[in-house]
Amino acid sequence: MDLRTSFAFYFVSLSLYAVVLTAMALADKRVIGTRWLAYSVVVEMVKTILQVMGGSVPRWLSTMMANELNIMAFFTMYVGMRWFVLREPLRSRVGPTALLTLMAIYCGMFMLHLKYAALLVTGAVLWLCAGVVLLMWRQREERFRVPAVITSGLVLVSMGVVIYRAALAVEVYRRTDWRMPVGDPRWDNSMMLIIMLAHCMLLMYVWFAAAEMYSAVEATAGIDALTGCMNRRALMKLAAHELARSERSGMPLTVVEIDLDHFKSVNDTYGHAGGDATLCAVVALLQDRLRSVDVVARTGGEEFVLLLPDTDAVSGAKVVDGLRQAVQAMRLEFEGRVITTTMSAGVTQGLSRSDSWTAMMNRADRALYAAKGSGRNCVIVDEQALKLPRRAVGVRGNAAGAAEANTAALSAGELRLIRKRLG
Questions:
Q1: Where are the domains of the chain?
Q2: Tens digit of each residue's pLDDT (9 = 90 or more) over 298-324
Q3: 230-422 CATH fold
C-alpha cells in the first residue's frame, strides 16, 4: 500500500469517526470533551485532504496550511482531553497566544522560504503532545485508567516519530538546495507509522467519550428522580463498599431506616404535588445537616435509609434524633398553606466483620417498626447494637462545620428509655 492510498483510507476512517463523535457530542451536550475531539477530527480531515492534493494545489495549501491545521488538530485534542481529565477550560491565554504566535512565525518563514520553518511545527506538536501525556498521568478516574495508559503510550511513540522526522528535516536543510526528497522510504515509512498511530488515537477518542457517557448514565441511574438523593440501586452498590471499608478499618458503620409518619394524609390533604414538595424538603434538610460522607437514599415512597460511616449506633441515634427534631420543626409553605410532618427511625450498626447488609437492614427495619409501635416521631436503636462497646470516633459535623453532634455516650436514662421501648 502506497502513501497516497494510506491517506485515502485514513480519510475514510476520519469521516466515520467524525460522524460517531459528532453524534455522541449531540447526544449528551454536557460532555464537552467529546465536542472538542470531534473538532479535532474534522480539522484533521481538512488537513488530510490538503496533503492528498499535494501537487494539484499550490504548495502553500498542501504544506503550509496543512501544517497549521495539524497544530490546530493537536490543540483541540489537548483541550478535549483536558475536559475529560480536569473538567475545566484553559485557565490562561498564555498558551494559546504563544501557539498562535508560533504559527504566525512559521507562516512568515514559509512564505519567505527560510530554512528550518518546519521545525517550528515540530516544536508546537511536541509541546501539545507533552501536555496530553501530562494530562493522562494526572487523571485519577478509574474509568479512564486503561485508555489513559494506552493514550500515553501512543502519544509518546508519536512524539518519537515526530522527532525522527525532525532529524530527517535537519538533514535536508543542511543540503545546498534543501529540497524535500521524493520517494525517500524513510519519509514514507515514518508517515505510514504516523497514520497507523492516528488510527489508534481515533479509537481512544471514542473510548474516552463512551466511558464518560456511560458514567453519566450510570450516575443518573443511581439518582432518585424526584428528590435528587441516591436511590435503592445505588445504595446497594455503595453499601457493599462501605461495609468492606468498615471491615478493613475496624471503624463502625451505622445504618438508619427512616419513615415519614402518616405520609398518606399529607398526600390526601395537599395532593401529590404537596407530598412531593415535602419529600424534597425533607431530603434537603437531611443532606444539609449531615456530613458530606454520610449518605441519604430514598428506598420507597416516603422511606429513606442513611449510611453514617465511622459512627456507632448510639452516636448515630443522637444525630438522627436531632434530624427528627428538625423535621418536626420544619414548616413548608405550599400554595398558601403550611405542611408539617414527623419521622420515625430505626438505628443499628455492623455487629461483626461477618455481619451482612441484609442482616443490618433487617435489624434497622425491626427498630423502625418498634419506633412506630411506640407512638411514632421517635428514634429506636437496635438492642443488639446497644450491647456493643462504644468507640470514640471524633466529633461529627456537616460539611460546613456549622452543626456538631455529641458523640459521648447517651445518658443512663436515655439508654433505659430505648431498652424499654424495644422491650
A1: 3-221, 230-422
A2: 999 999 999 999 999 999 999 999 999
A3: Alpha-Beta Plaits (3.30.70)
